[in-house]
Each structure stands twice: as C-alpha cells, then as structure tokens.
Design a protein that fits this description.
The protein is an all-alpha fold. The chain has 23 helices and two strands. Helices cover about 70% and strands about 5% of the residues. It is globular and about 75 Å long.
C-alpha cells in the first residue's frame, strides 16, 4: 500500500499553535461578548467584529504558512485528551481543509458587518462567534471524536440564530433543521464508535483519523459498507442531497440574512467536506461501491433544485433551491472519483460559498429596503439603483457559471472530471447549467428590468458601507474566475493522494487522462475509447470498479 492520503511523512508542524488559536479566538470572543453589558449593544458588535477579524487574519496566516505541493497535513497539533479510549485534540491542515478554513475566516466578519440583527445584538453576535469556532474545529479535526463534537456544536448556535432572529415561521424552520441534522448525527455517532472498536480488535481504542484509514484490512468489506452508510446519511442531510433537502429551503427562507450567508457559505460545506475527509478516505472500497447511487442523487438534485428554483415566487427561496442544484454538482464531482472531479468539487465549495453568500446578502438588502422578497412586488430596481443592480448582476452571473467568474471554473472542472467515469450522469447534469441561466436571468429580469412603480421608484442605491462589505466578495469571485491556479495548486496534491488511496484499497482505477492529459493514453487505446464512446460504453482500461455492478 502506498502512503495514504494525509499521512505523508514529515507533516509540517510549527511551534506556535495557530490552528488551536484559530478555534479558541472566536470561542473566547463569544464569552467576552456574553459578558458585555446588555445595554451596550454597540460595544458587543465591536468586540464581535474584532474577534472575527482576528480569526480571519489567522486563517490568512495559516494560508501563508501552508506549503504548496505537499499532500500531507501541515501545521499539525496533537495533545492527548483522554487516555482510554484514545481521544486527542488533534488538528491539521491540508489542501482540502485549508480553503474551508479560509472561507470561514472571510465570511463571518462580512456577515457580521453586512447583516446586523434588528434586535438583541449581544446574544446574536455571541452565537455567531460560537458557530464560527465550531465550524473551524470541524474543518481542522484529525480525531473522529473531536470532529463529532465540533460537528454537533454548530447545531446549537444556528438553531438559536434562526429561531431568535428569523422571520414568521422561524420556530418551525429551526426545529426542522435541528431534528434533521440530529437524526443524521445519531447514525454517524454509531458509525464512529463501531469503527473505532472494530479496528481495536481487543487492543487500544483510538479515534485517530490516519490510524483508522491506514488499516483498511481490519474490517470486512460488508462491514465497511454499512459503516460508510452511517456516515453518508449524516453528510447527505448536511449537504443536503436529494431527498434529504427539504429542511434547507425553510431554514434559508426563515433565517436572518447573516444566518443564511453562513448556512450556505460554511455549514453546508461540513457535509461535502465530511464526504471527502471521512467518507472516501476512511472507506475507499465502500465509496467506490456507493458512488453510482450518490452521483445519481447529486444529479437528481441538480435538475430538481433548478426546476424548483424556477417556480419560486420568493427571491430568497429561489436562491435556497439554487443551492440544492449547486451542491448536486459538488456531489457529482466528488463521487466521479477522479483528480479533476474532486479538485473541482473543492474549488466549487469555495466558489459557491462566496457567490451564494453574496446573493443572500443582496437579497437581505432588498428586504431591508422594501420589506418584501416577493418577485411580483419588485420591478425596475436598476433604474433607481444602477450600482446595486450591477453588483447583483456580477454575483448572479457567477452563480450561473459565466466564464471569467468563479462558478464557471468549478463547474467546468467538475464536468470534465466526471465525464471520464460518469458519462451519462454528466450529460444530464449539464442541463442544470442551462436551467440555472433560466431561473436566475428570469428572476433578474422581473426584479430589475422594466419601469418601476411608485413603491420601487424610490429604492435606495447601494450605500458606501454596503459596497465595502460586498467588495471583497465580488473581488474574490472575479479573481477565482480569472486566476484559479493558486487554489488548485494547493488542492491537487491532497486530492491526488486521496485518489491513489482509493486505488490502493479497491478495484477502482482512475483514467490516466484525468491526471496527465491525452498524451499518456496510447493511440490504440484512444481509438478504442472513442469507439466505446460512440457506442455509449466506457473504456474498460480506464475505469475498473469494485464488485457490485459498477
């Protein structure tokens, strides 16, 4: 067996515990905000923003310390927490988790500045900071028990943010969100404990991610598949994949603007990240076995989410259903199990977080001005607010997948990677790109074009402070669309090792063209591939899957 993913020898570590400080900083900030006098709400906001910006600066610092081209964990921190079973405060950063941490560090201060609450600022900011700490802990954890703790911590702040600062049906939406995710977490907890004790074989019980992933022969193939499903249920609900998606539109629609930004930008990524970090890495054979089913759910989500988005009358609910479609693309790329597909999925996680987070921010600004999100009540907004319309246009086009913006890069790489192993699924998925243009352009036409009536004629222009909040989001959307190389340079080594880990522990073989291009494929095989493609088949030399009809 080759050195598995993330277990590269000599994983970089530093004396300053920057990853621990990343998690502790917002947690301490939440405590400080909680101690602020309730009547000094202005101070509570200043303290929260200060701690959130400090966390963002630390995430950029971790990015600066990260060494490009290395596949293993870097900046590793490890401290024994419990002796028996062996549970540790074990943290690490690799090419996948790096961008989730940076995305979290960027979005939280933007959400705080751009979408303040309408009441009770002190507890609002305290919950947001605690939520940030939980998200960072989940992305950085190398111990399964630690990951589960952090994965669960995020539920509590988000529940209170929706139920306390949401809209009319906020209690229902918050309860539905909590129950769905807790249901999935129960399966994952059983899976984590079972995996650790089955691996122990009467010896020391450990929850260390790398130790469990390296010893693939300890548990039976059928057992591994059942354990994979226990994790997959939790992550499929969190993503969410069809048909576990029904909590998401309600949660997005009823959440306050900041809650929607963080829910779309960060929390949903806990599901997609979990599939890659724990699902595929811990259970490579089971991932290959389950891949066709999960790809099918992703493609159904792409089409279903797009069709539902087209039918929405509420602008915020439209954006919520668009997330279902976009996350279906990420699922397609993940379980194509190619270097391109997985790299595109990680890139698209970041791209979706920025573009959809920005869309929710803009929809929130519209609601604050007009006190409605009904598309029929909005008309001709570009005439009184041309700058606002221009910003909305850029963000909308990024969500559609316009060349030159970040959404195009992620979806293109996903489709390229998935076409190699999941050809017909990819063909169906392409229709999602067309439908995205339909529902977003049609919504934009109805909201911003035409002659505004009396209520819309006085729609306020984008304010200077709002422009400052939107500027980094728009800037990153354009930068990632024009120059994605720095992101891929850090993602691809880790993803390549993950694919190698899957090959070493299953019958799957990645097509050589997925990594090296057509030059690695002999002319004779290329001709055979072309003929197979004409017949609607697959190149047997390129894709070999495990038993089970894949």
């Amino acid at each position: 067996m080759t050195a598995p993913l993330l277990a590269a020898e000599g994983a970089a570590s530093v004396s300053f515990p920057i990853l621990t400080v990343l998690i502790v900083t917002p947690a301490v900030g939440a405590l400080v905000v909680a101690l602020v006098n309730r009547r000094r709400s202005d101070v509570a906001k200043q303290v929260a923003v200060l701690f959130s910006f400090a966390t963002g600066a630390l995430s950029i610092g971790a990015l600066a310390l990260f060494k490009t081209g290395e596949a293993g964990f870097q900046l590793v921190e490890h401290a024994r927490w419990i002796d028996e079973p062996q549970i540790a405060w074990s943290l690490g950063l690799d090419g996948i988790s790096l961008w989730m941490v940076v995305l979290t560090g960027i979005l939280f201060p933007i959400a705080m500045l751009g979408a303040p609450p309408h009441h009770d600022e002190k507890p609002f900011y305290a919950w947001l900071l605690l939520l940030e700490a939980g998200c960072l802990g989940a992305f950085l954890a190398k111990d399964l028990f630690l990951f589960f703790v952090m994965f669960e911590i995020v539920l509590v702040p988000m529940y209170f943010l929706i139920s306390g600062w949401g809209y009319d049906d906020r209690k229902y939406a918050a309860t539905k969100f909590f129950l769905y995710t807790m249901f999935g977490s129960a399966f994952m907890l059983v899976g984590i404990i079972s995996l650790a004790y089955l691996h122990a074989k009467g010896g020391p019980v450990t929850f260390d991610l790398q130790t469990l992933a390296e010893n693939q022969g300890v548990i039976a193939k059928s057992t591994g598949r059942w354990l994979f499903l226990s994790f997959a249920i939790a992550f499929a609900i969190k993503v969410p994949l069809f048909p576990f998606h029904t909590w998401l539109p309600d949660a997005h629609t009823q959440a306050p603007t900041a809650g929607s930004v963080i829910l779309a930008g960060v929390l949903l990524k806990l599901g997609t990240y979990g599939f890659i970090r724990f699902g595929i890495y811990l259970f490579p054979e089971a991932a290959v076995w389950a891949a066709p089913g999960l790809v099918t759910l992703g493609v159904i989500g792409i089409v279903y989410g797009a069709v539902c988005a087209t039918m929405q009358r509420d602008l915020k609910r439209l954006v919520a259903y668009s997330s279902v479609a976009h996350l279906g693309f990420i699922a397609l790329g993940m379980f194509a199990l190619t270097t391109q597909g997985l790299s595109g999925s990680v890139f698209q996680m970041v791209a979706h977080g920025l573009s959809t987070g920005a869309l929710f921010m803009l929809v929130g600004m519209i609601y604050d001005r007009r006190h409605t999100r009904q598309i029929a009540a909005l008309k001709g907004l570009q005439k009184p607010a041309p700058i606002f319309a221009a910003v909305f246009t850029v963000v909308m086009l990024a969500s559609i997948g316009m060349p030159g913006l970040n959404g195009f890069v992620g979806e293109l790489v996903i489709l390229q990677g998935s076409f190699l192993t999941r050809r017909w699924w990819t063909v169906v998925a392409v229709t999602g790109v067309i439908l995205a243009a339909l529902y977003l352009l049609w919504a934009y036409q109805r909201v911003f074009h035409g002659t505004p009536d009396d209520e819309n004629a006085s729609f306020p222009e984008l304010r200077f402070t709002e422009g400052l909040v939107m500027a980094p989001l728009v800037g990153l959307i354009v930068f990632m669309g024009v120059y994605p190389k720095p992101i891929f340079d850090r993602i691809e080594p880790t993803v390549a090792h993950l694919v190698q880990h899957v090959e070493d522990n299953s019958d799957y073989r990645e097509p050589g063209v997925a990594q090296e291009g057509e030059d690695v494929v002999p002319e004779s095989e290329r001709q055979g591939t072309d003929e197979a493609g004409d017949d609607g088949g697959h190149d047997e030399a390129a894709v070999t899957t495990s038993e089970g009809g894949h």
